[in-house]
Specification:
The chain is 39% helix and 16% strand. The protein is an alpha+beta fold. It folds into two domains: 77 residues, Alpha-Beta Plaits, CATH 3.30.70; 49 residues, no CATH class. The strands form two sheets. Strands 1-3-2 form a three-stranded antiparallel beta sheet, covered by helices on one side. It has a two-stranded antiparallel ribbon with strand order 4-5. The chain is elongated and about 75 Å long.
Length: 153
Amino acid sequence: MAPITISKFNNVRDAELARLALEVEGIPAFLIDAYTGQMLGPATTGGVRLQVDESDVDKADAVLNRIAGVIDAEYVAPSDAGPWEPPQTCPNCGAAEVARRQKWIAFVIVAAFVSAIAYTQDATLLGFFIVAAAAIFFLLAPGWRCKSCGHTW
C-alpha cells in the first residue's frame, strides 16, 4: 500500500516520539525528511513527515489524537451544544426575573461628560483615552441583573 503522511513536525525529537508511540501500538511508521523526501538520516535538523501505510491511517490518527489529548477531535463540533440562549434564572437566588443591563446608556453618559470636560480644558487627547478606557470597562461589565436580589453577572 502507498505511504500516507499523517503528521508533520518541525523537529526530529517530536517526530521520533510520535513514531515510537505508533510502533508500540503495532502500527509500522517511518519518518521522511520533508526537504529531500528521503528516509530520515543523521543530518536531518527539521521538517519531518510521519508516514504510515494507507490501511493504518485511521488507527494512527486515533493514537496521535489520544497522545495529544484530543481523543474525539473529529467528532466534536461547536454546534453540538446548540445555539446560545440567555439565562432563564438568577444563579444567586434562582428567580426568573432577570434582565439585560443597558450598558450603552451609561457609557454614552460617561463619554459625553468626559468629552465635555476634556474639551473645556483643552485636553481632548486625554479625554479620548479616558473614553476608550471607559468603553473597555463597560464592555467587561456584567451584562445581566436579577430584579429580585440585584445580583449581576
